[in-house]
């Protein structure tokens, strides 16, 4: 499952919580966060604290992994452009 928005994250958390038969109060106690935090994250609030989100995911048994896009191949020295000079920058 790919999660790209806070709304999708909130929906995932809500679905997992309800599938485990937990009330928001139960999850708040298990994750040592406030009920208001649970409500906010399930509603997709964008300013939620990452540390608390990670604690919440752990309490729900959700493992978060990072998938990296491939790094472009390095350019050869002959393809290298001039180094960036902020004093001589002209936007295109």
TrEMBL record:
The HTH cro/C1-type domain, residue ranges: 13-68
Positions of region (Disordered): 70-92
UniProt xrefs under InterPro entries: Cro/C1-type_HTH (IPR001387), Lambda_DNA-bd_dom_sf (IPR010982), Tscrpt_reg_HipB-like (IPR017507)
Entry-linked SUPFAM superfamilies: lambda repressor-like DNA-binding domains (SSF47413)
Entry-linked CDD domains: HTH_XRE (cd00093)
Gene3D superfamilies reported for this sequence: lambda repressor-like DNA-binding domains
UniProt-recorded Gene Ontology molecular function terms: DNA binding
Name the UniProt record assigns to this protein: Helix-turn-helix transcriptional regulator
Protein's organism: Bradyrhizobium archetypum
Organism phylogeny: Bacteria, Pseudomonadati, Pseudomonadota, Alphaproteobacteria, Hyphomicrobiales
């Amino acid at each position: 499952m790919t999660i790209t928005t806070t709304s999708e994250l909130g929906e995932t958390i809500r679905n997992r919580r309800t599938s485990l038969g937990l009330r928001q109060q139960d999850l708040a106690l298990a994750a040592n966060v406030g009920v208001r935090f649970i409500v906010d994250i399930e509603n997709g609030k964008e300013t939620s604290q990452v540390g608390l989100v990670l604690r919440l995911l752990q309490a729900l048994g959700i493992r978060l992994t990072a998938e990296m896009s491939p790094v472009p191949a390095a350019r050869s020295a002959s393809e290298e452009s001039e180094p960036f000079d902020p004093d001589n920058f002209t936007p295109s």
